[in-house]
Amino acid sequence: MQLGHVPLLILLFCFIISISSAEFSGKVGVNYGQLGNNLPSPSESVKLIQTLKAKRVKIYDANPKILKALQNTDLQVSIMVPNELINNISSNQTLADQWVHANVVPFYPHTLIRYLLVGNEILSAPDKSIWFNLVPAMRKIKHALKTHGITKVKVGTPSAMDVLESSFPPSNGTFRSDISGSVIKPMLKFLFKTKSFFFVDVYTYFPWSSDPTNIDLGYALLESTNVTYTDPVSGLTYHNLFDQMVDALIFAMKRLGYPDIRVWIAETGWPSGGDYDQIGANIHNAAIYNRNVIKKFTAKPPVGTPARPGVVLPSFIFALYNENTKPGLSTERNFGLLYPNGSNVYQIDLTGITPESEFKALPPATNNKPYPGPIWCLAKKGANKTAVAEALSYACSQGNKTCDPIQPGGKCFKPNSLPQHASYAFSAYWAQFRKAGGSCNFGGLAVQTIEDPSYGSCKFPGAKL
After folding, report:
1. Which of 429, 287, 259 lies closest to 346, judged by CA?
2. Cα angle value 237/241/247 (rounded, 5°)
């Protein structure tokens, strides 16, 4: 090598590095969910996203009002093909072309659409027929983008961690046998060929809350200073649960012959509230987790994970708002960085620059240990009567003499009202089936209480935790 060429090579190398770091920047985004009946308008929401200093935003559809509100901002945008269209698009290129023409072309490039995700957590869906249509749909969407001359948009699909059959130790990361060869391998081939990302939703809250005795809370919050885990096969040492989970996915991809596909954290976060039986869901933990994970994502130089040190992990924090119509457990409605009125649930800076000392003191965590119980499950005040009657019928049909006390002549028959009978039925059902996976939800018609609703000789069963 001639010395005269060295400066040119160095300049070229620096140029390549600058391009790659721009593309793989550790700037943090936010997931903008819309499952609330009290959320700000798209234009207000975009202003709030900018106030949080997010650099990217992910939506779960291709809402034209949101995409219009994002025009001429510097926010990189991820949009989504709805789950229900995947089966049809997978076998119909014309339909894929029409979807891109209707949902991308009118906004691009003034709205910086950079990622197009096909469905959401499809491989966790109970309907297996859609699994095998996922990759064909991804291919057709990519082809449709190309047909329209759009080459800068990466196509992917977000997966939950349950795509893994084994994740411990991380070196044993293995995809589920029912999707490994038939779905995941073709997907990895597609992602590799198109230089896209494996988008994954990583929540340390769920493994920790299901086993708080054996998993240290600080380890799950990226807060621990003295808890480590060394993988006996790889020899890699882990200082937090998040890295363990991500590396399990990396090892699983490597096992299928794709060691270098980039990982994108499509969702991560921690709930700031929940029901009485949902341990650790509080503002204190949510703030600590999100601040710590943002510091990790935005570190300079990048820290990566033990299996990929120094590699940037692009990310979206879940979620922009607490969404009050989201189904499921109460925690599902409490992942927001903001309340629906636009105020902060807790102080956060998505650039990771603000030092911890500048944030206000957090409220103490009061539910990091399981509530001893009992807890009762009652019908929600003002709930739809027809729906409550159906839920009452369901609760009474499931158990063994679950609803005998509310039959005529029973100790809880009076007062003979739908809310009163439903409350007894819900509580009795939950007390009987909680340990088998039953929940105090009933389609959003029920609410937990720690105040005993029993009266006179009518004793409501409560769930023991």
Report:
1. 287
2. 65
H or E element in which residue 207 lies: helix 205-210
Report phi then psi at 305, rounded to 5: -130, 165
Q: How far apart are CA 202 and CA 213, in angstroms?
A: 21
pLDDT digits (tens, 9 = 90+) for 316-346: 999 999 999 898 888 999 999 999 999 999 9
338 Cβ contact partners less than 8 Å away, ≥ 6 residues apart: 48, 52, 320, 321, 322, 344, 345
In angstroms, the CA 325 to CA 342 distance is: 17
Q: CA-CA distance, 19 to 142, in Å (whole number)?
A: 23
CA distance 354 to 195: 33
Q: What is the DSSP code string of 63-95?
A: -HHHHHHTTTSS-EEEEEE-GGGHHHHHT-HHH
Tokens representing residue 324 in the block: 């009050």
Half-sphere exposure of residue 325: CA atoms within 13 angstroms, side-chain side: 7
Find the length of the chain: 465
Residues linked to residue 449 through DSSP beta bridges, in sequence order: 376
Ramachandran angles phi, psi of 107, nearest 5°:
-110, -20
Q: Residue 397 burial by CB count (10 A; 0-12/13-18/19+): exposed, middle or buried?
A: exposed
Angle, to 10 degrees, between the axis of helix 93-103 and the axis of helix 131-147?
A: 60
Query: What is the rounded radius of gyration, in angstroms, for the C-alpha atoms of the chain?
Result: 25
Interstrand relation of 376-379 and 446-449 (parallel, antiparallel or unpaired): antiparallel
Catalytic site residues?
121, 267
**Which residues, in sequence order, are CB contacts of 41 under 8 Å at separation 6+?**
65, 69
pTM for this predicted structure: 0.88
Structure tokens at 66: 């949101």
Q: CB atoms < 10 A from the CB of 309, how many?
A: 10
Residues 191, 53, 113, 339, Cα dihedral to 10°: 100
Quickly list H helices, 238-384.
241-255, 283-298
Burial 215-254 (b: 16+ CB within 10 A, else e): bbbbbbbbbeeebebebeeeebebbbbbbbbbbbbbbbbe
- Beta partners for residue 317, in sequence order: 30
pLDDT, tens digit, for every residue of 209-232?
Answer: 999 999 999 999 999 888 999 999
Cα–Cα distance between 318 and 320 in angstroms, integer? 6
Q: Residue 24 — pLDDT band, cuts 50, 70, 90? A: low
| CA atoms of 392 and 394, how far apart (whole Å) | 5
